[in-house]
Amino acid sequence: TFVQQRGGGYESVRDVWLRSCLHVDAIRKLAEADAFRSIGLDRRAALWAVRALDGRSAAERLPLFDRPEVRLPDNEPETTLPAMPLGEHV
Fold first, then answer.
1. pTM flag (> 0.90)
2. pLDDT tens column, 24-76
3. How far apart are CA 18 and CA 8, in angstroms?
4. Is residue 74 domain-resident?
5. What is the spatial distance between Cα 8 and Cα 14, in angstroms, rounded to a whole number?
6. Is 28 within a domain?
């Protein structure tokens, strides 16, 4: 069962997905409900982590790297997103 799969806790959204056997849509709903705070992810970070999951395999889906012909600049500037307002966390 889900509780037995939990063991000593989860380390990431991907870990929850792999060990719980939940569908990606269910994991997304958990992220939308801000259920990943216990592993240090706010709602936005959890939703991004869910988007990296590939519902067809256990691999993470990173579409940017699916196109090897596209070269990325070596000096990509560091960017940060603004903090989510409290109203968006609720």
1. no
2. 899 999 999 999 998 999 999 999 999 888 766 655 555 555 666 666 666 66
3. 15
4. no
5. 15
6. yes
CA angle 78, 65, 54 (to 5 degrees): 105
pLDDT value at residue 85: 83
Amino acid at 33: A
Q: What is the pLDDT of residue 41?
A: 93
Note whether residue 71 is domain-resident: no
Continuous segment of H or E residues that includes residue 17: helix 13-20
**In one letter, which amino acid is 89?**
H
Sequence letter at residue 12 = S
- DSSP for 19-65? HH---HHHHHHHHHTTTTGGGT--HHHHHHHHHTB-TTSSSB--GGG
